[in-house]
Amino acid sequence: MKELPIIQSLWIGKKLSSMEQLSITSFLRNGHSFHLYVYDEVAGIPPKTIIKDANQIVPANKIFKYKNNNSYAGFSNLFRYQLLFEKGNFWVDTDIIALKPFNFPSDYVFGSESLFLQSGFKREILKWWVNLKTSVPKLSHFPPYYLVSPKNKLQLVKIGNGIIKCPPSSHLGKYCYTKAASRDPNTLRWGDTGPTLFSKAIIKLNLQEWVMPSEFFYPLNWWDWKWVIEDGKTEQIKIICRESYAIHLWNEMWRRKKIDKDATFSPNCFYERLKQQYNV
Fold first, then answer.
1. Residue 21 has what pLDDT?
2. By its UniProt entry, which PANTHER family does this protein fall under (predicted)?
3. 150 preceded by cis ω (within 30°)?
């Protein structure tokens, strides 16, 4: 059996919460090696995690937060592109929980976030794009969304950059890092060097065929982020995740709503079920 690809991520901070521990453990339990890049000593790293020096990828003096947002997400975008250019394999954000092994044989794997059911307005946008008679409209029409047809299904999607697989020395890694590094951190907005840049790169480099259906990695939409800690949603989430390789827990929503990731919720909610499953 071919060895599963290495999973890689970054953590900036003094300790991991239950969510990050759950993310790492889920990949380890599904047979992957997990490389966690850090700049300092970090408490709570699960056993068998391979700890890597993040300075070897991007030096610590390059770390920044968004000017009006207490988040390292912009720097994390920069870091992942350079890491993928140097090392290849998978990058995952630490709010991604593996539900089964990432046994994709292709060199490239990307995830789409479906917007098809978000609102009537989005459905009207979809109809308008279908009338353009093109499978991939120019991003200038409505960045960063575009049409793909994974498994012959037409969807209005956003390409997320929370799960990326590419080979070392790829044009994708180089392009995204160069573009991200050219931006002034003081003027960056949320998503500028994330999904917006990444979507443009995928289309520019003609890599759309490796964009997976939204149910593979992002089965739960961001506006439903709270379902995982609510009673009565577990069975519905299980149905939604029947074809999923992972579920995204939308950490940014937890942060903005000031939800404690180390809190204990109802034992029947999906988040607690995952913690029980992976013994976190």
1. 99
2. ALPHA1,4-GALACTOSYLTRANSFERASE 1-RELATED, LACTOSYLCERAMIDE 4-ALPHA-GALACTOSYLTRANSFERASE ALPHA- 1,4-GALACTOSYLTRANSFERASE
3. no
CB neighbour burial string for 252-274, b if at least 16 within 10 angstroms, e if fewer: bebeeeeeebeeebeeebbbbbb
Whole-number pLDDT of residue 148: 44
- What amino acid occupies position 273? R
Instruction: Return all residues near 240 (Cβ < 8 A) that are at least 6 apart.
Output: 215, 219, 220
Phi, psi at 158, each rounded to 5°: -120, 135
Pair 32, 101: CB distance under 8 Å: yes
Number of domains in the chain: 1
Is there a domain that residue 244 lies in? Answer: yes
C-alpha span between 116 and 99 (Å, rounded): 24
Does 218 fall in a domain? Answer: yes
Greatest pairwise CA separation for the chain in angstroms: 54
pLDDT tens digits, residue range 15-31?
Answer: 999 999 999 999 999 99
The pTM score is 0.86
Query: CA 40 to CA 38: how far, in whole Å?
Result: 6
In a domain, 2, yes or no: no
> In which element (H, E) is residue 189 found?
none
Give the C-alpha separation, 53 to 107, whole Å: 25
The pLDDT score that the predictor gives to residue 38 is: 99
- 158 beta partners: 113, 145
CA distances from 166 to 14, 87, 227, 280 (A): 29, 9, 31, 30
Q: What angle do CA 227, 230, 232 make, to 5 degrees?
A: 95
Record the tokens describing residue 78, joined without a space: 């920069």
In a domain, residue 118? The reply is yes
Q: Domain range spanning residue 254?
A: 7-277
